[in-house]
Every structure is written in C-alpha cells, then in structure tokens.
Predict the structure.
Amino acid sequence: METREWEGDFDPLSDPDEKRHLLSVLDSFRSYRRLAHFNGTHVRRQAFYSLPQDHWMMLSKPPFSLLDSLNKLDDLIDSNAELAEAIFMAGFKGFIAPTIDSDWVASIVPEKYARDEYQIYSIVMDHLNVQTTQNDMDKARSCINQFYRDWSAEGNVEREKCFDPVLRALSAEYASRLKYTPELDRSDLKVLVPGAGLGRSVFNICQAGFSVEGNEISYHELMASSLILNHTQKAGQFSIAPFALSCSNHLSRADQFQTFAVPDIHPGTALATEQGSKVPAHERMSMSTGDFCVLYSSPDYKDTFDAVAAVFFIDTAPNVIRYIEAVRNCLKPGGLWANLGPLLWHQAPREPNNDAESDGKYKHTHGHDAGIGDPGSVELTNDEVLALVQHLGFEIEKQESGAQETGYISNPRSMLQNTYRPVFWVARKK
C-alpha cells in the first residue's frame, strides 16, 4: 500500500540547517548498529574485565555467565539494527535519492556494491560528510523501542487504553451524524491526527473507515512510519528487543532479552480488505510533515476537518495556546476534538533568546512563523488547559480523569514501573 507520503509545501532540502538536521537523523539510524555495540557491549566488557580477575572469572561461569549474556546482547543489537537500517533506507529513498545525480553516485560506488542498496546509500552519506548528533542518536534508539508500543501485539495493552477511547468518540460522532444524514459514509468524516508518531493511530482510524491525515514534525517518526505503513512486506518482518539495552531493574536475563515481532499486522493487507467505507483505504490516509502550529493555523486549512484526534500530544507544546488556536482553525464549526494524555510538559522554561541548538533541541524554520520554535513556554494544570480550551471557542462535552492507568513503552516485568493516569476529554468547536 502506498499512502501519500509527507504532504505539504515545505522542502527541507531547500534550507541548509534543515538539510543538515535531516541528514543527521538519517545517519542516526545508519549508526545505530555501530554505536549500540560500542555503548551496549564494548564499554560493558571493558568494565567487566576491569573487575578483579577472580571476580570476573567467577561471573563468567554458570550460573552467571555474564560474557554469554553480553554475546546475546550483541545478537539482539543486530536484530534491532536491521529495523534501524531499514528505516534509514526508507528515509533516504523518500528524501535524498530523488535529489542526487545518478551519474555521480555511479562514480563513487565500487562495482562490488552496485546492487547493494544499503551500501550505496551509506557511501553517499560518507561522501556528504554527514555526522549525527548525540540528540539524534538518542532519538533513533527511542524510536526503535517505540515500535514495541505501537506495532507489536504485546504493545496493545498500552494502545487499547490510549487509542480506543478516541476511536469510540469518533464512532459515536459518526453514529450521531448518521441519524440526520442517512447517506453519510464514514469516509466523509475527515480526521486529523497531530503528533502521529509511528502512524498506528492513523492506521487504526483509517481501518475504522474514516478519512485521516496524520501530522508529524519529527523526521525520526516520519521515516519510521513510512517504513511500516508503506514498505513492510509482511507481519512480523522484524524482531526487536526494546528492553535489552537497559540493564537495570530486571528480575532475570530472560526479562531483559525479551523479543517482539513487528509489525503485529501488515498494514497494506489489512487496509486492502477493510470494508468500513465505500472509499478505498489508500485514498483515505495521508501524512503531512511540518510544524503543527504553522501548517494548521494557515488559511489553507481553515474549517477542513470534522474531528481532531490527539493522543499524548498537547503536552509537547511550549505554548499550548498555539495548539488550541491551530485546532480551532482547522476544525469545521461543530467539529469534534478528542484528546487523551498526561501533561508531561516537554519544554523546560528557557531564555527568550536561547539558541535552540545549545540545549539539544533542533529549531525548525518553516517560514516567518517559528511555530513551536517561538520563544517562551508555560506549564499548566489540567484545569487550566480545559479553561483555555473553553475560553478559546470550545465546549467541553466529556471529561474523564484517573479512569485508567497506562505505561509508555514500559516493560511489565520490570522492577520499576512508571504509570500515567491520562485525562480523556471531548470538546466541540462552537
């Protein structure tokens, strides 16, 4: 299945800073194998052999066999790296390959690699002198782990608590409208998913029969979602070990080394057989790239969507008013906003003129409006957020707090459990 990938007028390669960031993201996936082996096992082996000799010799034998565990960890890193490198290739093909001269590529690639897609792209990256940043390397690792939550069967424990309430709200909205418009098809409801991440909620909403557009600013997430939605060949194509590189709070090595097949479902096959709408699924699903505030506050998107479905999203806003204004602009009058998530504000207060690069945050520049890159930030309580939503033109129709608990990419066997008690609310534009 080919969805329309990365819609929008913004061309990241036209801006030198944005291009540099995009290449850094690509290199973070390409470097996953090398850096994970170095930080995950090489450094640990050095520390292990720095122990007194009688100590490391004792720990290298059963029942401990720590050297065998490090060898197993190397194998799991290689398994994770297969997914990381597939994302690298999908991102390179989507963003870079169409812009480079094929004759130049042929001149720099040795004949022995002429049929090796990964090596060709990697050689091009080397000739472009690309070097990833620590921030992007951390995000690549986190992105691989996120596949557990969004695209494994076991991750459904978290997904159903986060996505299902929103899907039920959309279905209830369709049922309500159907009473007054009997000929209404589910595809007639246009849904926006901001902060679409790895695209699972976009897929689920499309599978339910609605027309859906995902929006994402992170190139890590865009490349990963493109791979899973457009380029995977089968369910269970990859195997990941999301908890392997974290060596704390495990009851056993078996807990640490759990593996999970992803994706749990082949998106193309599932959507090809979906019967929830008269319109084929590939015509109802798209993804846009760019700053949510900038894109959806524009006149082009005014009164476009029937619903906005936001999951673990609004707390990514430095200034949540910008998010609310963007939702208000792009929703049709009477449109629905279903929101679920905590308020783990992602942006610490910063100096008005603080350079975005200095604290590891990349500043996206989409025209004159800097969107989430605008200076200033504020951290509000849930009551204050809801008051703002109402003040800025919405009516709150439903609110649930503390009704359910969920982790986020959490290992249920871990000795440490971080639990969210997300709030779910539904608002309607006046």
Observations:
- The CA atoms of residues 25 and 222 lie 11 Å apart.
- The chain has 15 helices and ten strands.
- Strands lie at 4-7, 190-194, 211-216, 238-240, 260-262, 285-289, 305-311, 331-341, 394-401, 423-429.
- Confidence is low (pLDDT under 50) at residues 353-367.
